[in-house]
Amino acid sequence: MNAPLVAALQSEPARSALVAAAPSVRRFMDDLGATRMRIIPYPLVIDRDEFDRMAEAARAMLEAQTVVIREFLRSGPPERLLTEFGLPAEIAPFVNWEQLESVEQVFARVDVLPTPSGYQFCEFNVDSSISGFEFHDCYQVMGEAVGIPWLAGTPRPEEQIADVVTGAFHQGGFDRVVVCDWSSRIGVGYFGFELLTETLRRRLPDVPVDLIYHADYPQRWLEPSAGKRTLVYRGFMHEDMDDDYDFITRLVGSGASVINLFEAEIRTHKRWMAMFWEERFASLLPADVRDMVSRYLPHTVSVTPENRDRLLADRAEYVFKFGHSSGGHDVMLGADHDADTIAARLAERGPDGWLAQRRVPLAECRFAPEVGAEPVPHHVVLGLYVLGGECSGMNIRADRGSAVVNIHQSAASGWAIPMDADERRRLIERVQAIGPAARERH
């Protein structure tokens, strides 16, 4: 699908226009702290109908999580959920159990693999700390530089998050909004929350909106008189915390309302990929959702003492993943390791918590790895965002070498725009008609 667009973007006059635009995009990213991140030199497209079907399935599966969660909460103490997912009991005071019964404040990125026969969901990343949607803004900058509004009419992810935050603000009687990240994230070279903070300031012009790192969080805001009037958007992950829960204890103790406490640790756990295939949970789901599971989820099982040896023998057919991990850590392609190596890794983390997901063939995606370069094959993972129930996307992560695509290693990122055939044709015509003004603008 992208071959005609890539051919047009690689040809003159577009090629020179993109080379001229690249410094402004790089400055935009660097000014936001994303100095280590690499960007694919132009956007790609995805079929709008296919995108809409995936968006429907992603929303349905998040709702399906809610169905299963409600059954857990109905049939026993809520802490059973932590046990089911192997999560530490220490996070129980920082779980908003009521929020687990709704998707109203769920922020998710569903990781999607393009295959020769369609698309497959390989992970759910559900947390207010997710990122990557900032590349939408990067291609907005690029489009303005080359004179093509290729993102016109597409939802801006920060606006979708802001819809949720401003809605909560107006319902709660707050007088301050804080976007809070962890201090160790300063200067790491990836996107932070500056774009979201700017968006919230524009949406709430008469309200103090602050981006604060936890070590700099003012003590006076942790007093109950101020805390109960403060709405906090959590930007840090559970694994970022290195203070034995000290800051989050004081924050929650102040009475501040936190959008996404650590109930997200339940929704983001990779065990869901297996649970949707297990009859005791699948039986709770409507028939149409079970059909979506069959269509979009590669068959996944929890590794147990009973199936471990069989899975190791058939390891080339599987990807092994630890359920509570992120950033590409604890992911092993069975074909790349011998049985003893995988067995040793399983044992390191203990017998529970590992998943084996059927490996799917990946479609080859060809595009330039950097501005001015020639197209080469890439392994690609797409990210479909579901932000407060609304979908946008898609983020692209691409690697020329490793099939485990990870921006923290060598992957570059980009954006895929949902378009139908007529929209793709018109975009190609615009690319072919780029004039000298765009090439000389920078």
Task: Please provide a written account of the structure.
The chain is of the alpha/beta class and 442 residues long. The protein folds into 2 domains: 3-269 and 363-440, no CATH class; 299-359, Dna Ligase, domain 1. It contains 17 helices and 15 strands. Strand 2 (107-115) and strand 3 (118-126) form a beta hairpin. The protein is globular, with a radius of gyration of 22 Å. The model has no long low-confidence stretch (mean pLDDT 93).
Tell me briefly what this model is.
With 442 residues, the protein is of the alpha/beta class. The chain has 17 helices and 15 strands.
* Model regions low in confidence, pLDDT < 50 over at least 5 residues: none
Structural class: alpha/beta
What distance lies between the first and last C-alpha atoms, to the nearest angstrom? 31 Å
Please give the domain count.
2
Number of strands: 15
Residues in β-strands, percent = 15-25%
Radius of gyration: 22 Å
> What's the number of helices?
17
Main β sheet profile: 7 strands, mixed
Give the proportion of residues in helices: 25-40%
Give the integer mean of the pLDDT values: 93
Instruction: Note the overall shape.
Output: globular
Protein name: Circularly permuted ATP-grasp type 2
What topology does this entry show?
Blueprint: H1 3-10, H2 14-31, E1 44-47, H3 48-75, H4 79-84, E2 107-115, E3 118-126, H5 135-146, H6 157-172, E4 176-181, H7 194-203, E5 209-213, H8 224-227, E6 230-234, H9 246-253, E7 257-259, H10 264-267, H11 272-275, H12 279-282, H13 287-296, E8 300-302, H14 308-313, E9 318-322, E10 331-333, H15 339-348, E11 354-358, E12 365-367, E13 376-387, E14 390-399, E15 412-419, H16 421-432, H17 436-440
Parallel strand pairs: 1-15, 4-5, 4-6, 6-7
Antiparallel strand pairs: 2-3, 2-13, 8-11, 9-10, 9-11, 12-13, 13-14, 14-15
Helix pairs in contact: 1-16, 2-5, 3-13, 6-7
Protein name: Circularly permuted ATP-grasp type 2
